[in-house]
Design goal:
heterotrimer; A alpha/beta (260); B alpha/beta (250); C alpha/beta (490); A: 260 residues; alpha/beta; Rossmann fold; 2 domains; six-stranded parallel β-sheet; four-stranded mixed β-sheet; 27% helix; 19% strand; globular; B: 250 residues; four-stranded parallel β-sheet; 13 helices
């Protein structure tokens, strides 16, 4: 049985005392001394009351924990745009980030992928293990010297050799032109979309929402891993001049599949 | 309409002509004005420097003095902001129930000058004549604390002969900041230099505002630099007529 | 150009000179002031445009403020939840009461990894605990990987802004630093070329150094996840490639739920860099086998935060999400840049956070480094009423002074005490005006203006004249005219 480390206990005791103290001073404020309460020595910790919540047993629950679910949220939580306008907005935002965007129907997808790969001039690609075979086969037929390296446990060195990567995505947020990866087998491990210099992302129209809250609404549960991509990496650290492509793929291409 | 004038400690001492202009203006508009002879200061200088106990003693005095006033008019946004923003905290922390009630009763009756003219008297055209090019400096207290909005411009728009020149970077602080101008004099002066560039660039003859505090700071530098522009409180512009033109104080 | 000539900027609040003094070399540096003004103008313009287009901006601010208030009010609960969930997902959570303890924990973890080198994502919390010099002294090289941080590290400079730390350095200065430290004699000063140089310089480090240190923008209590918001991709590199990962985070970084990010992420990038969304945001939970580090540690840091929590009005200081919108809009910061604040946290937020983290024992000049214009409060995405906290801290500093003998030597203190006495009685006030007028006559020139004053007054007359006191006060004029209203001249 591990005893909780003393630092942990001390910190929680301070927090408990602080929350207690603040609640007290709120109700009976007097003189200027109330202002300085936070900087006096630690007070004795108050009694804590527990109330379990889904699996973990909190011991530092203050008596009136109001669920954060009941906090007022009056910001926009649903988009207003028609599906067509939403797609247009997503494309517009992606292009603002200098991402190249082409559209196609579901039937045209393998050929469109092949065309994008051909146009890149690159030959060595990696793909996540869940990539549909159809995506890769058509390109392999059309492009001479094309090499697909599927990530069944590639080493970092092997991924570093790749010139490009092709993945699916979880969601697109039109308002900010954000592509969301939850790193499923079709989207790949995080390193796969990080090391190669060229990333082709297949985004379905049905995956696109207008606002960020709608993306959160779409998540069946919070993801363990997520990467939100809004354009290629950039810096403005030198005289505020925006430079693209510091680390991470400098070239982002998106195929928007009109599957609706 | 009756009103009591709180002139403010620094106007009383340094800018009595602003007070005289307020009197001329309001009496011309038919206001029965009185002036409590025992008034001194609202306590802002002390509150802003951290001397809360002292600020509170002045706040108490202010509230007691004006208990029976119908309306208190103050030609200084920063003093009104002090009363609206900091008095509640001072009375809550240091006052008793009686004082808090007195303050709560008084608060709605305290008014900055442009608020008094537009909101209480309902006038924008005060019959003024001031044939000059003027730029308006929006003091931070008036802009953010009191949210005066377009009131000053609405008043200036009705001043005959006045040509208004907009000021760039209007919402940027001039750097006065009360005791800040002395405690951080060099930074204050750097902010002043930057602000003055915008003010001088307007090519106006006068820079006006609803706070003589900012104008003392801007005008003091203008005078030091032989800048060819003068400062004048908006009350003096509004009081100015063809028969009695504004006292150009500089 | 570094400021060594005028004294290297000291970002340690226990050593830094008071703000008015620290600001002087900066005020005399036109290049630096120009760089600062340019940088913040760019960000501010972009921010303003995006805020104008966001119809629910004020609603988002209200929600963010409420979420952060709630998280702080129930901080114990949410920290405990975070610890449980993070641990269940394979992370190890450590607790550090202060900077020294945090440093010790991190060093011990690095020793366990046999690490002689570590790559770092920018984290101000690590600067707050002065981690890098400590690790260097223990024989561990800590490599910064953010472009600005590399510039600072290689150039031996100090950060002057929390989002764009090298904004005080222009391109030719960067070129000089890179050419010298990276051995690139023919490097041009084109920002693209400079960035490429940094990319190449760092690539090998990312691929070979197996231990990384990060901060956290947010800790999600509900899931035990950590969120890092960045632009360049070095964060992603440090989070995915190494075998062991240490995240250092202040205890106040907690958000209750994953969904709370829908508010915070909409506000953060717009406020910080004037973008709808920053290029890369990463979220991870504990350890995911096969994807990312095999060992993950979180070091939760108190270091004065729990004492700030205790004050019901000052607690709002901890809501900060480190966007730097406040300093981008601050007219004081515009003139002084960050170094004058003598802390890793500069600007308006620094003016309230730093003294409080120091438990009001240091940096007492910072609450006065403000004209109280209120611009910061207007832009703060979580609605921290910075002016309100500044005033509270000024009261605390003044109360400290009341107990010290040196107050009798402080002309401002004496002057304000006397002024209070004078304002307490009308006759004292009038007498002071009378004698003041006589006294100031000595300094008043023929044109009726005062050009120079002694003592505190000299601070005014350094750059401003003061009109001599008029011979009649307003109240004197009022008394003299009796009750006759003014007659309009015909």
């Amino acid at each position: 049985m591990n005893t909780p480390p003393p630092s942990r206990q001390r910190i929680f005791a301070r927090i408990r005392a602080a929350t207690q103290l603040a609640a007290e001073t709120r109700s009976s404020v007097k003189g200027t001394s109330s202002v300085g309460q936070g900087f006096s020595p630690d007070n004795k910790p108050a009694q804590s009351m527990g109330a379990g919540r889904g699996g973990f047993q909190p011991t530092h629950l203050s008596p009136e924990v109001i669920s954060s679910e009941s906090l007022p949220r009056t910001y926009i939580r649903h988009g207003q745009l028609s599906p067509a306008a939403r797609i247009s907005l997503m494309i517009e935002r992606l292009r603002e980030y200098d991402a190249e965007v082409v559209e196609c129907s579901p039937e045209e997808l393998p050929n469109t992928i092949a065309a994008q790969l051909a146009a890149s001039g690159k030959h060595k690609f990696v793909a996540p293990p869940g990539t549909p075979a159809a995506w890769m086969v058509t390109a392999a037929w059309q492009i001479q010297g094309l090499e697909w390296n599927i990530d069944h446990g590639l080493t970092t060195a092997e991924i570093e050799q790749a010139e490009g990567v092709v993945t699916a995505a979880f969601c697109g947020v039109a308002d900010s032109g954000t592509i969301v990866l939850h790193h499923s087998p079709a989207e790949g491990r995080r390193v796969l979309t990080l090391l190669p210099d060229w990333h082709l992302c297949i985004l379905r129209a049905s995956q696109i929402v207008e606002t960020l809250p709608e993306y959160f609404h779409r998540c069946p549960q919070p993801p363990a891993l997520a990467t939100w991509i809004s354009g290629p990496s950039a810096t403005a650290d030198i005289e505020m001049t925006r430079i693209k492509g510091v680390h991470g793929p400098r070239f982002l291409h998106v195929i928007l599949v009109r599957d609706e | 309409m009756r009103a009591s004038l709180f002139i403010t400690c620094y106007n009383d001492t340094l800018y009595p002509e602003t007070g005289r202009a307020v009197v001329r203006l309001l009496e011309r508009l038919g206001v029965e004005l009185d002036f409590h002879p025992r008034q001194t200061c609202c306590g802002q200088m002390h509150a802003n420097t951290g001397f809360r106990g002292e600020a509170f003693s002045q706040a108490k005095r202010f509230v007691r003095l004006y208990q029976d006033a119908e309306t208190v008019v103050i030609p200084s946004s920063s003093c009104v902001a002090m009363i609206r923003d900091q008095y509640p905290m001072l009375f809550a922390e240091m006052g008793n129930e009686t004082l808090r009630n007195q303050f709560a009763a008084l608060l709605p009756r305290v008014c900055e000058l442009s608020e008094f003219l537009i909101d209480r008297l309902g006038v924008e055209d005060v019959g003024a004549y001031f044939p000059h090019r003027v730029t308006y400096h929006a003091s931070c207290h008036g802009l953010r604390a009191l949210q005066l909005g377009d009131r000053p411009w609405r008043l200036m728009a009705k001043v005959r002969g006045l040509e208004q020149v907009p000021l760039q970077n209007l919402d940027r602080c001039c750097g006065f900041g009360g005791t800040f101008s002395v405690k951080n004099a060099e930074v204050s002066s750097a902010m002043l230099a930057v602000k003055l560039q915008d003010v001088i660039a307007t090519g106006a003859e006068y820079c006006t505002a609803l706070d003589n505090s900012c104008l003392m700071h801007l005008g003091g530098a203008m005078h030091r630099q032989y800048a060819g522009m003068k400062t004048i409180h908006l009350a003096q512009i509004l009081a100015s007529t063809e028969a009695s033109p504004a006292e150009a104080t500089l | 150009m570094n400021l060594a000539a005028a004294g290297h900027p000291v970002l340690d609040p226990t050593l830094a000179p008071p703000f008015p003094q620290a600001a002087l070399p900066v005020l005399r540096n036109p290049q630096l002031r120009k760089n600062v003004a340019h940088a913040i103008d760019v960000i501010q313009a972009k921010r303003a445009k995006l805020v104008a287009e966001k119809a629910d901006w004020q609603e988002l601010r209200s929600a963010a403020s409420a979420i952060r208030d709630h998280a702080l009010e129930n901080l114990g609960y949410y920290l405990e939840q975070f610890e449980a969930r993070c641990t269940a997902a394979g992370g190890v959570v450590h607790w550090a009461t202060d900077a020294a303890e945090a440093r010790a924990i991190i060093l011990e973890l690095l020793r366990q990894e046999n690490a002689s080198e570590v790559i770092k994502i920018k984290t101000m919390t690590s600067a707050e605990i002065q981690l890098n010099p400590f690790l260097e002294a223990a024989g561990i090289s800590a490599y910064e990987t953010d472009l600005a941080e590399i510039i600072l590290q290689l150039g031996d400079e100090e950060p002057s802004h929390i989002v764009v730390p090298a904004l005080h350095i222009n391109r030719s200065q960067v070129r000089e630093i890179f050419a010298r430290r990276m051995g690139l004699k023919d490097l041009s000063d084109d920002p693209q070329a400079l960035t490429n140089a940094a990319r190449t310089w760092l690539r090998q480090k990312f691929l070979t150094i197996p231990t990384a240190i990060s901060g956290a923008n947010f800790l999600i209590a509900e899931t035990g996840s950590v969120v890092v918001v960045e632009s360049e991709g070095n964060g992603r590199m440090c989070l995915t490639l190494p075998r062991a990962m240490i995240t250092l985070a202040g205890i106040e970084k907690v958000l209750p739920r994953f969904q709370d990010l829908e508010v915070m992420l909409q506000l953060l990038a717009r406020s910080a860099t004037g973008e709808r969304m920053n290029p890369y945001t990463s979220l991870w939970t504990g350890v995911t086998p096969g994807d990312g580090p095999e060992r993950f540690h979180v070091v939760l840091l108190d270091n004065g935060r729990s004492s700030i929590l205790a004050s019901s009005r000052e607690r709002q200081t901890l809501k900060c999400i480190r966007c730097a919108a406040c300093m981008n809009t601050c007219p004081v910061y515009r003139q002084t840049g960050g170094h004058a604040y003598g802390s890793v946290y500069p600007g308006p937020i620094g003016a309230i956070l730093t003294p409080q983290l120091m438990r009001m024992q240091h940096a007492q000049s910072l609450p006065y480094a403000s004209s109280l214009c209120g611009a910061c409060y207007e832009v703060c995405p979580v609605k921290i009423n910075i002016p309100e906290v500044l005033l509270d801290l000024r009261a605390l500093v003044t109360d400290q002074e009341r107990g010290q003998f040196r107050r009798f030597l402080d002309p401002m203190y004496l002057g304000l005490r006397i002024a209070n006495l004078i304002f307490s009685r009308a006759w004292l006030f009038h007498a002071a005006q009378f004698f003041g007028r006589i006294g100031l006559r000595f300094f008043t020139r023929k044109d009726g203006w005062i050009h120079s004053l002694p003592s505190l007054g000299a601070k005014w007359t350094q750059t401003r004249d003061l009109r001599g006191l008029p011979s009649q006060t307003f109240h004197g004029w009022w008394a003299a005219r009796g009750s006759k209203p003014m007659k309009e001249a015909k």
